């Protein structure tokens, strides 16, 4: 890869006098589209066109997840003494690549360089905020997003991410104060999910329900039906919860979670046959959870299948990963052992 | 202040970005963090707790574990107890006994009398020293010259206006207020007669307010003997004790004047007492209010959210404790 880099540097330095081996580069990159762009770079009439095509080449490498190739190209472009605006852009690009590679320290290094060029730029501050948030440095993330909003108070992304920052810190009311400022929130599934979780955490179930209803009036999404089911469960509206969980399962049949929740609702309602059906379905989808065995043990007990109940309770004990789950399995085993 | 902040921010921009980068590098070298999360991520513990919790809530009172809630003293910081109650109510955590000291007695009285917590929040928003005592710049000055302590009789009036002139046996939830006998240092349990009077006695800051006369005793703030009265709750033999500690962070407290130095002395003494008491609690809720001064009533309202957050974090632990104290046969039958 260093060879590509050297070639590009030389190309920029000596353009238009030098030509270099097209075959060599073609052997290093894949895809006809990239090869075509490369040929265009080679044949570019002037430096401006060559730069634009090289940038396009870097974009294509990113699309193909060949990040180090793209990074090398941007570094070379930086070496060609570009304008301040272009330098800013390349620093951001290298930072973005570092984020894609989950190298957050390097990302921050390059975003820092970009920020030194345009201190108040909303994009660089947003990107830095993102890195801080991904690194759980919430105070710094908060500062970055607030800085963005101090420049542009209507910057949607910063409002959302500032909300996310507070959400992750467990400051749900504060998170909502930013989420609620976002226009057309009902079209953003990710935002809806965080808002619903925030409302649920501050016990504003009705507001959460209104939000999911609005979303579901325009869209169908298994996740949102599942959330709606949870909210109805919170309100002890088990019939409505059942409907929503069933809908979520219909939209995404291979999902374990709505099935186990539905089984639990049926168990609570005394509908043991249905409970067994969905607990078994959940078990088939994922048999690693002690919770499924624990629920199956209780359903079997209610159906007077004591032998099965004991077997499930033992399985639950074996699979239990936390002291609480172990304790529950143990208590159930002890109770079932006393039954003749 | 603004200038200092700006200087700090600039300093941070130029010098600490490198440190942050190093910190992040170390963080990601040490921890493999997964950021992927989905609505469908299954927390089997939470699922099991919630399904069992529904059973606990359906149990008749005599079959459910008995829960005592202990509300510590801490002046303005203690309004965070309201946030704790908000969570306990929302999660339907049953409370069978409240034991309070000082502000814990006042907020506890709100709750045990059945006051909606939204009203308690409104009271916290408008709460001032003037509304519950004779405190003012003039009265403080006059106190220095005349050596006459101030009165906090207004606390009784304040409580009577907001919860009614209730006796302990009229409360919806049993309650005990803790005060201290100024002459003997003994803790005194107040659980009969007027609730407002007891809460006032429990919240009588020594050295500022006149001790409250009660059955040949002179009572002052319960914080002097039992700031987080877990020991008192234990006397009533509950199955679970939840303690809410709103102690000061003594390393951050100001000692710039006589009043603040007096408060700091109380905090230092209280810290030793709290540690001993809290060890006996099953669950401890600690709102992050240590930096707020007990006398800073302007900060009172802001502590409610801190109490809410701390209680929210403790809910899972509370539910686990209650489920584990419930007989299996009650959970399955």
Order of helices and strands of chain A: HHHHHHHHHHHHHHHHHHHH
SSE topology string of chain B: HHEHEHHHHHEEHEEHEHEHH
- Morphology of chain A: elongated
Q: What percent of residues of chain B adopt helix (DSSP H or I)?
A: 40-55%
Number of helices of chain B: 13
**Which blocks of ≥5 consecutive residues of chain B have pLDDT under 50?**
1-12, 29-36
Shape category of chain B: globular
Portion of residues in helices of chain A?
over 70%
State Rg of chain B. Answer: 22 Å
CATH superfamily of the domain at 254-340 in chain A: Tetratricopeptide repeat domain
Report how far apart the termini of chain B are.
Answer: 63 Å
SS element count, helices of chain A = 20
Show the helix and strand layout.
The complex is a heterodimer of chains A (340) and B (333).
Chain A: H1 2-14, H2 22-28, H3 32-43, H4 47-63, H5 67-79, H6 84-100, H7 104-117, H8 122-134, H9 138-151, H10 156-168, H11 172-179, H12 189-201, H13 205-218, H14 222-234, H15 238-251, H16 256-268, H17 272-285, H18 290-302, H19 306-319, H20 323-337
Helix pairs in contact in A: 1-5, 3-4, 4-5, 5-6, 6-7, 7-8, 8-9, 8-10, 9-10, 10-11, 11-12, 12-13, 12-14, 13-14, 14-15, 15-16, 16-17, 16-18, 17-18, 18-19, 18-20, 19-20
Chain B: H1 2-30, H2 44-58, E1 67-71, H3 80-90, E2 97-101, H4 103-112, H5 117-125, H6 129-132, H7 137-146, H8 154-163, E3 175-181, E4 187-190, H9 195-202, E5 212-214, E6 217-221, H10 230-235, E7 240-244, H11 258-278, E8 283-285, H12 303-324, H13 328-332
Parallel strand pairs in B: 1-2, 1-7, 2-3, 7-8
Antiparallel strand pairs in B: 3-4, 3-6, 5-6
Helix pairs in contact in B: 2-12, 3-12, 4-9, 8-9
Characterise the protein shown here:
Chain A has 20 helices and no strands. With 340 residues, chain A is an all-alpha fold. Chain A has a domain at 254-340: Alpha Horseshoe (Serine Threonine Protein Phosphatase 5, Tetratricopeptide repeat). Chain A starts with a helix and ends with a helix. By secondary structure, chain B is of the alpha/beta class. Chain B has 13 helices and eight strands. Chain B has helices spanning 2-30, 44-58, 80-90, 103-112, 117-125, 129-132, 137-146, 154-163, 195-202, 230-235, 258-278, 303-324, 328-332; strands spanning 67-71, 97-101, 175-181, 187-190, 212-214, 217-221, 240-244, 283-285. In chain B, strands 1, 2, 3, 4, 5, 6, 7 and 8 form an eight-stranded mixed β-sheet that branches. In chain B, helix 2 packs across helix 12, helix 4 runs antiparallel to helix 9 (195-202) and helix 8 packs across helix 9. Chain B is globular, with a radius of gyration of 22 Å.
């Amino acid at each position: 890869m260093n060879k590509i880099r050297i070639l590009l540097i030389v190309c920029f330095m000596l353009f238009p006098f030098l030509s270099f081996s097209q075959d060599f580069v073609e052997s290093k990159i894949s895809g006809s589209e990239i090869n075509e762009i490369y040929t265009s770079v080679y044949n570019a009439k002037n430096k401006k066109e060559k730069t634009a095509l090289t940038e396009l080449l870097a974009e294509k490498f990113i699309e193909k997840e060949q990040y180090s190739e793209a990074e090398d190209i941007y570094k070379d472009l930086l070496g060609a003494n570009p304008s301040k605006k272009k330098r800013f852009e390349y620093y951001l690009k290298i930072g973005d690549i570092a984020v894609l590679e989950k190298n957050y320290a390097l990302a921050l290094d390059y975003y820092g360089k970009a920020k030194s060029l345009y201190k108040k730029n909303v994009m660089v501050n947003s990107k830095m905020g993102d890195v801080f948030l991904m690194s759980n440095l919430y105070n710094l993330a908060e500062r970055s997003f607030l800085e963005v909003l101090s420049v542009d108070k209507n910057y949607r992304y910063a409002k959302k991410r500032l909300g996310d920052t507070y959400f992750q810190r467990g400051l749900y009311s504060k998170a909502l104060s930013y989420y609620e400022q976002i226009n057309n929130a009902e079209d953003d599934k990710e935002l809806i999910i965080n808002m619903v979780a925030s409302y649920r955490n501050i016990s504003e179930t009705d507001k959460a329900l209104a939000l999911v209803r609005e979303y579901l009036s325009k869209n169908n999404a298994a996740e949102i039906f599942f959330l709606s089911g949870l909210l109805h469960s919170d309100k002890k509206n088990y019939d409505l919860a059942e409907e929503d969980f069933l809908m979520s399962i219909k939209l995404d049949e291979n999902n374990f979670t709505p099935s186990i929740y539905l089984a639990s609702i049926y168990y609570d309602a005394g509908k043991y046959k249905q409970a067994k059906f969905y607990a078994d379905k959940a078990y088939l989808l994922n048999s690693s959870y002690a919770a499924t065995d624990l629920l199956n043990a209780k359903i079997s007990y209610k159906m007077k299948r004591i032998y099965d109940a004991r077997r499930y309770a033992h399985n639950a004990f074996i699979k239990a990963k936390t002291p609480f789950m172990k304790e529950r399995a143990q208590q159930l085993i002890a109770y079932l052992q006393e039954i003749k | 202040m603004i200038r200092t902040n700006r200087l700090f921010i600039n300093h941070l921009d130029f010098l600490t970005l490198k440190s942050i980068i190093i910190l992040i590098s170390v963080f990601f070298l040490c921890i493999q963090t997964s950021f992927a999360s989905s609505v469908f991520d299954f927390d089997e513990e939470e699922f099991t707790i919630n399904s069992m919790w529904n059973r606990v809530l359906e149990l008749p009172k005599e079959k459910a574990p008995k829960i005592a809630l202990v509300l510590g003293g801490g002046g303005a910081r203690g309004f965070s107890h309201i946030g704790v109650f908000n969570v306990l109510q929302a999660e339907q955590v049953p409370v069978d006994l409240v034991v309070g000291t000082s502000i814990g007695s006042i907020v506890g009285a709100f709750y045990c009398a059945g006051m909606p917590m939204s009203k308690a929040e409104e009271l916290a928003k408008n709460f001032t020293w003037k509304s519950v005592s004779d405190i003012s710049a003039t009265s403080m000055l006059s106190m220095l010259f005349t050596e006459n302590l101030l009165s906090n009789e207004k606390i009784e009036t304040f409580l009577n206006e907001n919860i009614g002139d209730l006796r302990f046996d009229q409360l919806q939830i049993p309650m005990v207020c803790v005060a201290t006998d100024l002459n003997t240092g003994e803790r005194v349990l107040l659980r009969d007669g007027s609730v407002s009077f007891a809460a006032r006695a429990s919240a009588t800051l020594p050295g500022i307010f006149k001790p409250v006369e009660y059955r040949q005793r002179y009572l002052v703030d319960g914080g002097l003997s039992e700031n987080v009265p877990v020991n008192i709750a234990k006397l009533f033999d509950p199955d679970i004790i939840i303690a809410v500690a709103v102690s000061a962070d003594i390393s951050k407290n100001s000692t710039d004047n006589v009043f603040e130095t007096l408060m700091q002395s109380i905090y230092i003494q209280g810290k030793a007492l709290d540690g001993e008491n809290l060890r006996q609690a099953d669950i401890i809720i600690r709102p992050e209010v240590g930096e707020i001064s007990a006398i800073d009533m302007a900060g009172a309202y802001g502590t409610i959210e801190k109490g809410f957050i701390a209680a929210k974090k403790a809910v899972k632990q509370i539910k686990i404790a209650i489920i584990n104290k419930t007989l299996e046969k009650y959970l399955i039958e």
